[in-house]
Amino acid sequence: MGVLIGLLINALTNLFTKTFLHAAFKIAITLAFIALVVAAVLAYVSAARLIINSISETVPDIVNGVWMWVMPANTSLCLTALSAAILLRFFTNQYRLLINAKFRASISN
């Protein structure tokens, strides 16, 4: 009886370890990908701010005054939100295409 319990515990331990390590690996890959996307978006936004700030130093004050008549004060925040929405839509569409491809592959067998 003790041997059966030992074999059962050993099998459950191996199953749990393999499942846990596989899930932890997938989570680590997903978190690394999210961190990479966030870093890319932050680099893009900081580069855009750098370009906007460098342009504003060469533009005369009267043009900056007219710019403030046309553009709101939160333009950079709006552009950041718009860029994030475009990226989110792109990744959502890519994920949908991946799910459709996996589904087609699973039903074709």
Describe the structure.
The chain is 93% helix and 0% strand. The protein has 109 residues and is an all-alpha fold. The two termini are 42 Å apart. The chain is elongated and about 90 Å long. It has 2 domains: 1-59; 72-109.
Radius of gyration: 26 Å
Q: What does the main sheet amount to? A: none
Count of helical segments? 3
Helix content: over 70%
Shape: elongated
Runs in which pLDDT lies below 50 for 5 or more consecutive residues are none
The proportion of strand residues reads: under 5%
Alpha-beta classification: mainly alpha
Mean pLDDT: 81
What is the terminal-to-terminal distance? 42 Å
Number of folding domains? 2
List the helices and strands in order.
HHH
Number of strands: 0
Keywords:
0% strand, 93% helix, 109 residues, mainly alpha
Topology:
Layout: H1 2-58, H2 61-70, H3 75-108
Provide a quick synopsis of the model.
By secondary structure, this protein is mainly α.
